[in-house]
Amino acid sequence: MIKHIVCFKLKDNSLENCKKAKEVLLSMKGNVPLLRDIAVGIDFLHSERSYDIILEVILDDAKALEDYQNDPYHCSVVKTHMHAVRESSVAIDYEL
After folding, report:
1. What is the rounded distance in angstroms from the CA atom of residue 2 to the CA atom of residue 23?
2. Spatial CA neighbour of 4 closest among 83, 66, 86
3. Domains and CATH numbers, the chain
4. CA distance to 25, 44, 49, 64, per residue, from 30 (Å)
């Protein structure tokens, strides 16, 4: 199993924009069949080093991660939205 984690810093990190980003990310549930599990959180601390949103997904293996990166829904809906609203992002992928 693979855990894929992405932290996003938004251009506008108002609660409204964070909730919208969370909604878009969670919309992958049921639309991206490769996902085994998904969790999304909004930061409440807002420290200088904080990111605004965290995405955690579980996938079967490295091939599923590669396929997830090219999934039509993920690319057309989620990546499009997140690329438009993010200031920056960092990711880590590891085996469970």
Report:
1. 23
2. 66
3. 2-95 (3.30.70.100)
4. 12, 27, 33, 16
Determine the 3-state secondary structure of 91 from DSSP. strand
Put simply, whether the predicted model's pTM sits higher than 0.90 gets the answer yes
Angle at 82 between CA 31 and CA 8, to 5 degrees: 115
56-83 residue pLDDT tens: 999 999 999 999 999 999 999 999 999 9
Q: Write the Ramachandran bin of 39: left for phi over 0, alpha for psi from -120 to 50, otherwise beta.
A: beta
Considering all CA atoms of the chain, what is the largest pairwise distance in Å, rounded to the nearest integer? 36
